[in-house]
Amino acid sequence: MAVHSIRQLGDPVLRLKAKQVTKIDGSIQLLIEDMIESMQAASGVGLAAPQIGASLRVIVIGLPEEEPFALINPKIVKRSGHRLLEEGCLSVAGYRAEITRSRTVIAKGLDRHGKPMRIKAVDNLLAQALEHEVDHINGVLYIDSLESLDQLQKVEVEQASTSGG
Asked: Which residues, other chains included, contact 73 with Cβ-Cβ below 8 Å and sequence gap of 6+?
């Protein structure tokens, strides 16, 4: 297991649509462990595989006081409502901005053992993290929803890293 550096805005891997995982083997298990370690080392609540240079459809989420989990080939199957949230990203370190996210998010995918998972999150950090990380594996960053990069607010790096991957 290893802590990887987080790829930053401008790295082309962040803009690629990540590839489906077709086989959950030892290399995927190792990737998940590395992602969790890297996310925790950066004080994040989520991380997508492209953020450590692996263009694969794998995300991990580790909410405060909860055990981190992985979702392989995740898809948002339903979203509803809207809410304004302040968001940051480990790949856009040192900045935050207010963006619109869904109130309710239902996602499905596979757990790290290949079993189907369905997650429903309502008005919480999990809903935000699911949308944020699934955006990452589709080559989308939260700053893409801003009308102008002037909306970004500079913050201390420690504060900026407490949000999504």
From this structure: 20, 21, 57, 58, 109, 110
d(CA 27, CA 49): 12
Helix and strand counts by DSSP (H, E) for the chain: 3, 8
**Dist. CA 149–CA 165, nearest whole Å:** 19
Share of the chain above pLDDT 90, in %: 91
Q: Is the per-residue pLDDT at 63 higher than 60?
A: yes
Q: Nearest-CA neighbor of 96 among 57, 141, 127, 53?
A: 141
> What's the pLDDT score for residue 162?
43
Place of tokens 């290949």: 114
- Nearest alpha-carbon partner for 89 in 128, 56, 57: 128
d(CA 149, CA 143): 7
Average pLDDT, the chain: 94
- Catalytically active residues, by annotation: 133
Both tokens assigned to 106:
């239902």
Quick one: DSSP state of residue 90?
Answer: G
Residue 157, pLDDT score: 55
Q: 12-160: which CATH architecture?
A: Alpha-Beta Complex (3.90)
